[in-house]
Amino acid sequence: MVGNDSEKTMTYTAIIAEDEPILRAQLKAKLSRMWPALQIVADVGDGEAALQAIAEHQPQLAFLDIQMPEMTGVEVAKSLAANRDMRCHVVFVTAFDHYAVQAFETNAVDYLLKPYSDERLQSAVERLQERLTTVPAPQQDLDTLVKQISARIKPATEQLKWIKASIGNQLRLIPIDDVLFFQSDEKYTLVATREIDTLIRTPIKDILESLDSNTFWQIHRSTIVNATAVESVSRDFRGQATVKIKGRPENLTVSRPFSHLFKQM
Questions:
Q1: 162-262: CATH homologous superfamily?
Q2: pTM for this one?
Q3: Is 26 helix (H, G, I), strand (E, B) or coil?
Q4: Which class does domain 5-153 fall in?
Q5: For the sheet containing 61-65, what is the strand order?
């Protein structure tokens, strides 16, 4: 066994993010049995809820399923890497094969490969107990890790240069640099420029994967803004941030998981 008794009984907190309710409940029950001192402060079913739980509870550990709706576990880890105030030790829960998880092993981060045995989970618990007493979470190179995992689990996506939009009877090509922001509802995505607004059927998640992340920032589950078009950022008495876009009347809400993007503004 790893560590001394005082280290194992020290109280730590964790969140679990898994979109399969049965698997989420099983992991929570097994952790409670194997590691009674670990407090599961939240268990959620999608990536955005995971980020919100981490922002609210500031846990030391996050168990993240890689394939989740709204945001994948990799996207959650990418947000954590960009925000030092939200960093924690990450444990990926994944159905990818060993070739993919080699990236995890090289970065001192644990993973659980589905379906995992009780023995494998116990091994992960012991490894985590040791790491929590020796390695501060910010020392995990999450940014490098995310890049390595992303390269292994999906091919590089060619960046968008044009948005194809039907306007009346015409097909118009809108240069991506002209787009001020994207905003989606259940069926359509609004493409807003200085000259026109138009609707397309492409889901905002698919658009995000093809954009330059240095220029286009997701600020809400349904909103992506062109950072060069941001005129100002304001906050109300609750700390809720909103973004004003140059030449537009809208005030776009920034959800809490993405508020770190504007900390210096």
A1: LytTr DNA-binding domain (2.40.50.1020)
A2: 0.59
A3: helix
A4: alpha beta
A5: 38-44, 12-17, 61-65, 89-94, 110-113
